[in-house]
Amino acid sequence: MQIKRTKFLMLALLLIAFMFFTSDLVLIDVEKTSIITAVAIDMEDEEYIVTAQIAVPEATDTNTENQKAQISGKGSTVGAALKDLGDTSGWFPKLSFCNLILIGENLAKTNVMNALDYFAKTLRVQDSALVVMCEKSAKEILALATPLDNISSFAIQKILLKTIGFNRDIATTDIKTFCSGHYSDSASAYMPVIKCIKADEPNSEGGESISASGSDKGSQSSSNSESEKKENSDNLFDATTTALFKNGYKVGELDENLSLVFNAFGGSFNGTTIPIDGVPFGGKTVNYLLTVINKISSVKLSATENDLTLKLNLTLYCKIADVNTDYSDDSLSNNAPLPEPLIEKAENFFTEYVNELVETSVQTECDIFKIKEKLYRHNYKQYSRYKDNYFSALKTDINVNVYGQSQ
Question: Is residue 5 included in any domain, yes or no?
Answer without folding.
Answer: no
